Every structure is written in C-alpha cells, then in structure tokens.
Amino acid sequence: MKMEKMMKMNVLFALVLVSGLALGGCTKDDDTWNVSELANAREDQDVGGLLMVPLTLIQSAAGKGAVCMDGSLPAYHFDPGHGSGANSWLVNLEDSGLYFRGQRIYEAAMEELMSKGMRNADQAFLSGCSAGGLAVVQHCDEFHGLFPANIKVKCIADAGLFLDAVDVAGGRTLRGFYGGVVNLQGAAANLPKNCTSQMDGALCFFPENILNNIQTPLLFVNTAYDVWQIQESLAPKSADPTGYWDSCKKNYTTCDAKQIQFLQGTSSAIHITWLYLDIAFNV
Ligand SMILES: *[C@@H]1O[C@H](CO)[C@@H](O)[C@H](O)[C@H]1NC(C)=O
Ligand SMILES: *[C@@H]1O[C@H](CO)[C@@H](O)[C@H](O)[C@H]1NC(C)=O
Ligand SMILES: *[C@@H]1O[C@H](CO)[C@@H](O)[C@H](O)[C@H]1NC(C)=O
Hints:
- By secondary structure, the chain is an alpha/beta fold.
- It has helices at 2-12, 29-32, 35-40, 102-115, 131-144, 173-185, 193-196, 207-210, 227-234, 257-280, and strands at 14-19, 45-47, 50-52, 55-57, 75-79, 88-93, 123-129, 152-158, 218-221.
- The chain has one domain.
- A seven-stranded mixed β-sheet has the order 4-5-1-6-7-8-9, with helices on both faces. It has a two-stranded antiparallel ribbon with strand order 2-3.
- Strand 6, helix 4 (102-115) and strand 7 form a beta-alpha-beta unit.
- It is globular, with a radius of gyration of 20 Å.
- Residues 34, 36-37 line the site of one 2-acetamido-2-deoxy-beta-D-glucopyranose.
C-alpha cells in the first residue's frame, strides 16, 4: 500500500537526471538505451513502452568552466512533474565522474534547474547511485540550502558508501585514488571544511568521515558485499598481482576460508559504518 503510494508519487515528481559525463549509471543505461535516440527524443515520446526524455546540455556551463574532463558540456534529462506533483522534484545524480569537476558542474546544473521551476518546489529529493551516490553525500546539505526552511528536502545515496578499506595487500587503494583526485583537481577546497580542517583532504571523500556533519535527512542503500568495492577497492589487480582473488571476487562460492574471513572482516567494517548512519539518518 505504502509502496503503491510511493510509486504514484514518483510518477508525479519532476524527474531530473544530472550527468557529468555522457550517460552512465548503476543500471548501465548506456548498454540498454540507444544514446543517439535518447538525444533526439521529443519530450515525453514513448518508445516501446519506455518514456524517452531528451538530453539537455547545460549551455551556460562552458563560460563557468563547468565542463567535463574531455571538455564536453554536462547535461541532464528533465521530465516535468504533473498535477499534485508539479512542485515535487526528484534530482538524480548519475554515476559518472561528476566529482572530478563536480562542484562547478553541480552548481551550473542547480542554477539552471532552479530557473526551470525548482525554486517553486514544495518538496525535493536528491538521489544518486555509486559515484552519484557519493556526490549526494557531498552535496546533500548544499542542496537543502537552495530551498527555504519550510520546504521538505531529503537525500538518498544508493551504493555510495565507499569505504576507506584496507585492501588484500594491506594498502588503501581507494584512499590513494582519492588522493590523486585531490592533487590533480585541487578538490579539497570543495570538501566540507570541518572535515578538511581535521584530516587529509583525500579522507574527506569518504562518507564515514563526513556523515556526522550532515544535517539533512539522508538515507543509504548499500549491500554489505558491494561488488564494485570488492573488485576495485579490496582486491584490485594492483593489490593481487598473482590473481589469487580472481575467481573469488567474481563468484563468492569459489572463495576459500581465508578469503571468506577477509570479506567478513570487511563486512563488519561496513556494519561499523552503519552506526554512523544512526546519527545521520533522522528521517
Ligand atoms: C541507435 O539509433 C540510431 C537512430 O535510430 C540508429 O541509427 C543506430 O543504429 C542505433 N544504434 C544502436 C547501437 O542500436
Ligand atoms: C561541522 O559543521 C556542522 C554544520 O555546520 C556543525 O554542526 C558541526 O558542529 C561541525 N563539526 C565540527 C567538528 O566542527
Ligand atoms: C560459481 O561457482 C560455482 C562453484 O564452482 C559454480 O557451480 C557456479 O556455477 C558459479 N556461478 C557462476 C554464476 O558462475
């Protein structure tokens, strides 16, 4: 019953998919949708039972230096809300390299959406998956700040709980990767000040280090055995040159006892992270 009501609300929501690079996403949009058809779709065109929503390039972004790593313009899909949902907004940050020049792209996108009617929202949801989920954690309070205090604003981060985990070689692959982003892009300036004042900028990419300061209701959806994190953060090729993890990380039933023990140790780290959620999750 509750679910039915929610689905109906979703249909009524203005739906915006903000994309920092081309299409991408946890649902592998680019595999299942034909990008050139999408780009040429007319508003609300129905193709084979799918609602096709055209891509809007943010033309004003170039002048603000808010372009993607390859120089292309950021973009979004926008489907306006209807009826009682006309002023309900769902903004979804796609899984992409949004955070690389994320701040300027995010600001250019929000400015344009506000001018398209989001300033009249009576409720607004910021959502995102994977890298988009991480961007939600980083922007949730900022998004909330766009609206007057009486407007209901919530965030949902799907598979965005990237952990500062120790990999199978005892290193910290993901921390090293974020360190590179901080150095390459000077991204630290856009990370929460009260995290960067206390620890290295690279650590302030991790939700576990910034959750305590988030004031807006934020819901996480994350599996304990996050496939991407196991394959790219815990047991990447660089940490497993002999390929001992190759089979296990693709099919858990082939893991030996030692590997299971390692994964379960990591999953308890994930459970520790859930404690942080109690603090942030006050919906
Ligand atoms: C995508 O759509 C265009 C235009 O309809 C078509 O020419 C092209 O072959 C399609 N590409 C794929 C991979 O289906
Ligand atoms: C961080 O910022 C939040 C919100 O501005 C504030 O409530 C909190 O006390 C700050 N935390 C620290 C450790 O400064
Ligand atoms: C996973 O490995 C088991 C045991 O070797 C095998 O029976 C199963 O088919 C594999 N599953 C997949 C999806 O490959």
